[in-house]
Amino acid sequence: MNRLAGCFLVASGVVLAVASGSDSDQMLSGVGIFWPAMMIASSAFQAVASIVKGKLLDIFVVNSFGSRFQALFVLLFLPLLSNLKGIPLTELPSYLKSGAACFFNVGTNTTGCDGAPILSLLYIIVNIVFNISVLNLLKYSSAIVSSLAVMSSVPISIYILSLPLSYLPEGAILSPYFVLGSVILMVGLVLYNISWPLKQD
Questions:
Q1: Which residue has the higher pLDDT, 107 or 57?
Q2: CB atoms closer than 10 angstroms to residue 188
């Protein structure tokens, strides 16, 4: 029961923390339902693979295959995604060229690309380390523990992005419900991992 309650509290904390930004003056204002639903759908196969992991995992092999297939499907769905963002297919090559110029911070029309490529490479490194850490946690624990740990990264990321850091806009105001949701989430994580002593007959 404590594990079920922990999972429920973690999920409730994430929902409360993210939903706290629905007001117009909050950090997460203007976030519709489509992109969160797309994110959930894209995580379905990874979630199933985590549950039916079966054998011991080689985390580098799993991460490499996951990254390859992620890149493959991004390329396959690039025309559809660009169309959803209002970018015609004929203009896609110019957008890719501009994106590459922004990534390497070359050219004269690279406004808004401050910190590149250092920040871009730093993001890639942190992303790889995070994925390997999650896979390593999955290797030595269960899929539920790994999923709960990933859920805890949601409010932590939102809190960090709300700070007035370099190369980011001014800090955003977080709702008190965000703090409450984060507290509920952490209580759920602690509750899930507590081993309750069993009463002896």
A1: 107
A2: 24
